[in-house]
Amino acid sequence: MADPQVMQVAIRPKPAEEPPQHEAPAQRRQTVCHFFARGNCTRGVACAFLHEGRAPRATDQRRPAPCKYILQGSCRNGNSCRFDHLVRPDLDGSAVATDSTEPTLTDDWIRDMAAGQVHFSDGAAVAKVVLASDLSAVRLHNLPIESTETSVATWFKSLGLDVPVRSIRLYPAEGRDTSPSAVVRVEDPHFAKTLCDKLVSRPTGLDDIEATPIPAVFYGKEALGSSLRDINSKKVAVSWYRPTRTIWLNFRNEGTAVKVQDGYASGSYKILGQQVETAEVKVSSSTLVWTVTLLAVPVDVTVEEVRSSLPRHLSPRHIELGKASFEADVDAACTTVRLMLKSIGALEWWQHGTHLGGKRTKAQAVFFDEADARKAVEFLHDAPLTFGWSLRLTVRLLPSAKFRVLTRIYEVCRARINELQPTWRAQYLRFDEYPPVSRFTTVKIEAEKMKNVVQAKKALEVIFAGDIAMGDNGATLWSPALVVDGTMFQRLRTIEAELGVAVCRDKRKKQLRVFGCQPACDRAMAIIAEIMTNLAAEVYNIELTKKQVEWARNGGFQDVRSALKGRPTKFDMLSSPKRIVVAGCRADYEKALKIVSAGLLSSDPGTADSGECSVCWCPPDDAVQTRCGHIYCRECFENLCHSGASSQSLIECKGSADTCKKPLALAELEEKLDSATSEAVLEESAMSHIKRHPDKFRSCPTPGCEQVYRVGTAIMVVCPDCHVATCSSCHEQHSGMSCGDYKDKTSGAFEASQKIKAELGIKDCPKCKTSIEKIEGCNHMTCECGTHLCWECLRDFESANDTYDHLAKEHGGVFGNDYAGIDDW
C-alpha cells in the first residue's frame, strides 16, 4: 500500500471554491502541479503543489484521424495510409491506442500444480514446492486508519514474529465507520495459532487489532502464475469524461431551429466528428429568438468549427459558448489517475491515449500483482476525481491470455481463427496478433468478461493442439519409418505443401498431429493412411556400449552413414543405452551392425559438432541453436526437453556428444518452445520431481485424485479435493488410531498380501514401496520414482550403468547366470 495521504487525495471530491490564498503549503501539496505534469514548472522544489509521476506527453499532438478500416480489422493501404494505424477498436467499439509499446511481462516461473506452488529454476528443475498444508493465514481487523503493509509488518515484529511485507495484503476501509483490514499468509503451518496465542496473552489496551484464522489459499498472481498460456488479470482499463461545454445556437425563425435540432439529434450534423446531444428548442418571448442547446460538446471546440458543422443556409444568427464543465490539464489529469492506481499497488506499465477523440479520456495500466488489479477495480471504480466536480473514474479489469505457436502452424490455422472472429466481436472480445519472432507468432485475446476469455482460450487451445492422425478404423497413424528423416518424412513435407496443412511428428507418443482447416486435415490423413499401407519399412536399433558410443563420436557413426549410402540413419542420444537407428532392409541393418562390431575408426574421424544435430548427429531440420552454441533439429530439441524433464527433472544440453551438460535457462526454453510445449515440460518436471522424492511427497491414495501431500511424522493430512484423511508417516487411512495400532490390526492382511505377491513374482521398490512385476527383459528395472533396481537382489543404484556393472559382477550378466556371456557389458 502506498502513502495513505495520496489515497485520500485521489478519492476526495473537489471543493466548490478555490482554496484561500493563506492556505498552508502542506495542504496545497496534495494537488498535482499542472505545470510539472506538462514538464515546464519553473519553481522546482519551491513549488507548493505536488511534483510526482509526470506523465509522458504525446510526441505528436496533430496526429491524423484513426483509420476506419484498421478499426474494422485491416487496411489494404498498409503503411502508406494517411490515417492513423496506431489505434485499434476498444471493447466498446471506440478507438484506443495500440499496446504495441506494452512490454513483455516477465515470467516468475511459479506454477500451481499438485495442490500447491512449484517454483522452477534453470533446466526446468524444481527449486521449491509449496503445498497448501505448508501455509497458514489470518485476517486482521481494526487496523489503524493510516496502516500500510510496512506498518503491519512492523507490528508483527513487536510481537516477535518476522512476516515479510510481500505476505501482507492490505484492504482499505470500505466506509466512514470502518477500519482497514489485511490478509496475511505465511509459509508456516503453525503461524495462525502462534499469532492468536500471542494476541490472547498481550497486555490489556495495547491495541485493538484482532486476528481470525482463514483457509490458506493461494491468491494474487500466485493463483495463476504468469505464464503465457494462463489467463492474466493484472491489466485494467481506466477512463473518465473529458471536459465539455454547453453551446447555444440562436435562430430568427422556428422552422430553421427545429430543422437544426433534428439534424444534430439524428447524427446528420456532427461537431469534431462526434454526435452531440440537444435539448428542446426554446423561444424567447421578448426577442422572438429560437434557441437550440447543444449539450456536452468537447471543450476545445471553436465558434467556427460549430458554424462549419451546419449547411450555410442553416447558419445560426449567434453562437454562444458556455463555460467548461471543469478546468483540468490533460497531462495533470492523467498523472492524478496514475497516482490513484499507484496508491493501490506498484505499476509495471502505463499508457494513455490523450491524442484520441471521443467523450472520454482512456488509459491502461498493468500491475505487478494481480491482487492489486482486482483491488483497483473494487476500490477505485466510480471513485470521485479531484480535478472535476461530480467527475468519477471508471475502472474495469481486462483479463487476457496469450499463445505462442510456431508461425508455420499459425498460418495454416488462421482460417479457423477467422471463423471465430464475428462471435468474439459480438462479445466485445479483442484478438491481437503480434509480428513473428524467431519462427514463433504470439496472439492475445482480451475481454472485460472472464467467461468470454475462458471460452476463447479453450477454442484456441483446440485449434493449436491439432488433430491426431487417425485411420478409417480409428487406429493412430504411425510408422517406425517416421523415427528417421527418410522417404516417409519427405512425403509428409509434400502433403503439407499441396494441402496447406502442417504435420508434426510426436516421436515420444508415436503420433502425427495435423493442423489446418478441417477438410484439408481429413484429406491429409487419408493420404497418410494410404502411404503407410503401401510403405513396407523396417526400423532396427543397434544399442551401444560406452566404448562404442565413444567410437561413434570419433567418426564411427559417419562411417555407418557412408556405408549405407543415404539410407535413413540417425543417432539416438536420448535413449538409455544410446543407440543407432537404421530404417531400411535387413541387409542394411546387418551391414551397420558389422561396422559397429568391428569398431574401426575412420581415417578422418571429424566431430559430432560439425553442424549436425546434437541428438541425432544428422543435418538439422528446422535448426535450433542453444546459447552454448550447439545445434538441434526442432523435433529433437523438443524431445530433449520432454526427456530431461520427465526422467530427471533437469534439461541439459547434449552437445559435444553429451559432454556439454549445461542446464538450459528458463528464458531459453521460453524462447525456443511454443507455449503449449513449454507448459507441458514444466508439468512433467514437477511430476517427475514429486515421484523421484517419495521421502518428501506422496500422492493422495484416492483413485483418480491428483493431489499431493508432504511426508511428515504421524500427522493426518486431509486432501483438499476428496477430503480423505491420510497419515503423512505410514501413508494409511487410520484416523483415530496410531500407526502401530493400525499395523497390528492389519498385519494378517499384510502377510497374506506379501505371500500372494511372492507367488505372482511381484516385488516392492525398496525406496517408495511401489509394487513391480517383471514380464520380460533383463534384470535392470527402473521404478516410476526413478530408482534403478537389480531384480535379483533388489539393490538400488544411482544410474543404469551402475546397475549393469552390478549385474555383470554379482549375477553373471544382465539376464542372470543362465545367460552369462551373451552381452558385452
TrEMBL record:
What's the protein here called? Uncharacterized protein
Q: Which PROSITE patterns match?
A: TRIAD, ZF_C3H1, ZF_RING_2, ZINC_FINGER_C2H2_1
Citing just one GO molecular function, the answer is:
zinc ion binding
Q: What is the lineage of its organism?
A: Eukaryota, Fungi, Dikarya, Ascomycota, Pezizomycotina
What does the entry list under GO cellular component? ubiquitin ligase complex
- Record domain C3H1-type: where: 27-54, 61-88
Protein origin, superkingdom: Eukaryota
A Pfam family of this chain:
IBR
Q: Has keyword Metal-binding?
A: yes
Q: In its keyword annotation, does this UniProt entry include Transferase?
A: yes
Q: Which residues form the RING-type domain?
A: 609-819, 613-653
Keywords, sorted A to Z: Metal-binding, Repeat, Transferase, Ubl conjugation pathway, Zinc, Zinc-finger
Pathway in which this enzyme or protein is active:
Protein modification; protein ubiquitination
The cross-references to CDD domains, in alphabetical order and at most eight, read: BRcat_RBR (cd20335), Rcat_RBR_DEAH12-like (cd22585), RING-HC (cd16449)
An annotated GO BP:
protein linear polyubiquitination
Family matches, as InterPro entries: IBR_dom, LUBAC_E3_Ligases, TRIAD_supradom, Znf-CCCH_4, Znf_C2H2_type, Znf_CCCH, Znf_CCCH_sf, Znf_RING
Q: Where are the zinc fingers (C3H1-type)?
A: 27-54, 61-88
Q: Where are the annotated segments for Disordered?
A: 1-27
Check the UniProt entry and state the signal peptide residues, or none.
none
**SMART domains from the xrefs?**
IBR, ZnF_C3H1
